[in-house]
Amino acid sequence: MKKFLIYFSLSISVALFSTSLYLYLPNHFDTIDKKLRDMLFINRGAIETTGQVIIIDIDEKSLNEIGQFPWGRDKIATMVYNLALNGIAAVGFDIMFPEADRSSPKKIIYDLGIEDLVPDDKEVDYDEIFASVLSQTPTILGYTFDFNGNQQYLDVETPDIPAIFTQKGKGKTEHLLQPKGVIKNIPIIQDNSYSSGFFNATPDTDGVIRSVPLAMSYDMSVYPSLALELIRAVHQINKLTVNYDELGVRNIELGEFNIPTDIYGRLAVNFRGPSYTFTYISAADIIKNRVDPKELEGKIALVGTSAAGLLDLRNIPYDSIYPGVEVHANVIDNILKGDFLYIPAEASAYNITITLIMSIIVVMSIGYSGAVLLPIIIIVLGASFIYFVNYMLFVEGIILTLFYPLFALVFGALVSIIVNYFLETKQKNLIKGKFASKVSPQVMEDIMKRAADKGNTFIAKEHEITVTFSDIRNFTNISEVAGGARLLIQFLNEYMDEMTQIIMKYEGTVDKFIGDAIMSYWNAPVLVKNHVEKAVDATLDQIHALKPLNAKLKLDDRYKAICDLAADNGVEPIEIGIGINVGVGVVGEMGSSGRSDYTVIGDPVNLGARLESLCKYYNSSCNISIYVKEKIPKGKYIFRFLDLVTVKGQSVPVEIWQIVDYQAIPMKWEGNPLYKASKERLLDELDYYHKGIDLYKNKNFEDALLVFNELESWPDKSNKNIYGIYIQRCEHYIDMPPVDFNGVFKHNTKG
Length: 751
Hints:
Elements: H1 2-24, H2 26-44, E1 53-58, H3 60-66, H4 73-85, E2 90-93, H5 105-112, H6 126-135, E3 139-146, E4 154-155, E5 164-168, E6 181-183, H7 187-190, E7 195-198, E8 211-213, E9 215-218, E10 221-224, H8 226-234, E11 239-244, E12 249-254, E13 257-260, E14 266-268, E15 279-282, H9 283-287, E16 300-305, E17 313-314, E18 322-323, H10 324-337, H11 347-369, H12 374-396, H13 403-435, H14 441-449, E19 461-472, H15 475-481, H16 485-505, E20 509-514, E21 517-522, H17 531-554, H18 560-568, E22 576-591, E23 596-601, H19 603-613, H20 615-618, E24 622-625, H21 626-629, E25 637-646, E26 654-662, H22 679-697, H23 701-712, H24 722-735, E27 744-746
Parallel strand pairs: 1-15, 1-16, 2-3, 2-16, 3-7, 5-11, 22-24, 25-27
Antiparallel strand pairs: 3-6, 4-6, 8-14, 9-10, 11-12, 12-13, 17-18, 19-21, 19-22, 20-21, 22-23, 24-26, 25-26
């Protein structure tokens, strides 16, 4: 109960601190929060558009074909006319015309003062042509509001919008953005268009556009954005209502469209993807009428530019070089599809509740599970929370904070670890003082993990374990030429360090080093899944590791004498034999009252030691018992039957097998130092050998002898002892036929 109260109080403290940051310092972490949400967009990737919005792009191709921009407005007029001719629903301009066309013939004539010399029919005015086309087409012009009041073309009068704009529930405070002036198109163009809308974009403090204003308040009136006005014009809606609640703007009603916004009337854009997610059509193709009418009919067309030199590029969550016109395309598509993203009025309550829950879960989980599960707890909680926020964002359309619950997660984990450390340090010191002189470091670690368990976890008990013994061949000769104990120890350490790393890699425990021998076991003190298979894999990896290890030793001048001795005897500096056995042994803390260790004993351990000592007799690198063979996967390894024997100290016969290597060995096998032929030749040899063994077991010694003699004559045979052993036995039994033959051979020595 005391522990619960400590961690529960701690979790509440973490929650209060995290929510205080959310309530009182929101602006300090707002950019981080938005950057995290950007990652959700990137992770989601591009999604399908409605297909109802297209972009007429003044791109590099258009500049190459039509000429540098701005173009003569006769070309713009041709583009709009062709769009209307092909059934476009509406055209919206993300560009402006704030001054007269300087390329217009009439403008040039009057600037030169030669109007009396030029016939009236030659005084063509491109602005009049463009205005005439606008008056006959569903075109919505763009304009921009100014917030600084110092623009060259600043005006105070706004364009006329043919609709009714109302505000419902508004208090004394104005929440819509309030510009200081407006920059419009020249009157002849502005007055002949169907309508117009502002195309201001308002990036966040980090320069990224995540939301855009749908309406602004200027001179006591409401004005719609270009995207909103296009929707209104296409659907022939005559009324727009801005609805307020006590916090500010709640939504904008436009006919059947109910558009949620933030308190400032801004729409959080549900971006469809990176640049060019929408259909782009080159303006040159429209001007030259090279587009299939089916691509235009009934669509809303936005005219803008992606050409780098025209500087209409923006930064959005997906892309830092994003055509500004595509931002408006996203807004229109959001409204048409209705998959809005918004911050509900109760968002603060949601965010505080989630932060509180996250704080309690992380602190209590880590407090009761310890630091071992810390990464899993953080990953599971973090991933679950991100999945939840992702679902709320893209399925429910609700924007929730990411930063503060994640901050609570990390901060709560850190605080819990610190508290855990102080609470457990005293307990661990007491345990270490009691057991440090009795158990190995590996067991001490496990004791620390189980410190909260009741009772003595390490009392001796029967338990299935896999045990291995390994030994270096010809170590006596190595010792004689080593040149001193110090060099011999260095030589042994080179070997034992390599082998120990492999054993630990496969979750084994090194029990002890006995001179040049290594005893290790699996499935104790902690359970190891597939422990028999892992012990075998560790053994084969040790055998494979000898080749690079021996190569390294040969290059070291310190071991020259040892390597020269091995070369003279036709062997490698280090060759080993390993025995593996599995069975139920006694596992636990053993020894005297003053000195003890956690170890394993019993018949399985004794047999494992005998199997290792018989490696030299059978010329095998790895001997296993039949009990091991029965517990490892079929088809993973290559086996050779060695013998049915009773070993010294035991009376029950046991089959001994050799694991030659993995089945998945390369064609030219270089893993096992005892064999260099192809895999196919090895398998043929073993198949023929096992036929000979079957003959031998069935007392057909004459035929078995023929098989073993033939195998002995093979120049590249894989075993130089085994065939001679069975040849000798067959010859003996032919001369002296056994009365009661059972195939058992009795070893009266250890090896």
